[in-house]
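Morning. Coffee machine broken again, so started the prediction first thing and wrote up yesterday's gels while waiting. Chain of 75 residues, entered below exactly as on the submission form.
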Amino acid sequence: MKRNLFAQRLKSRRKEKGYTQEFLGEMLGYNKSAICDWETRDKEPRYDILISLSQVLDCTTDYLLGVVDTNDKDF
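Came back before lunch.
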């Protein structure tokens, strides 16, 4: 996982959707500090959480991980 790119894209997509860290955490069953850790610290979500993040943020896991540069779900 491209650590910095993942953190940047997670934060960017969250903000684009208008979600706070607290709201996103509630949607996923986690607290705000978990979202903060993923966005700013050297922590990564488990694969099942990554899938949930992509669904909630309406993007692909490949986009979040930095595998592709486009957020095109039909890719």
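The mean pLDDT is 91. Going to sketch it on the whiteboard this afternoon.
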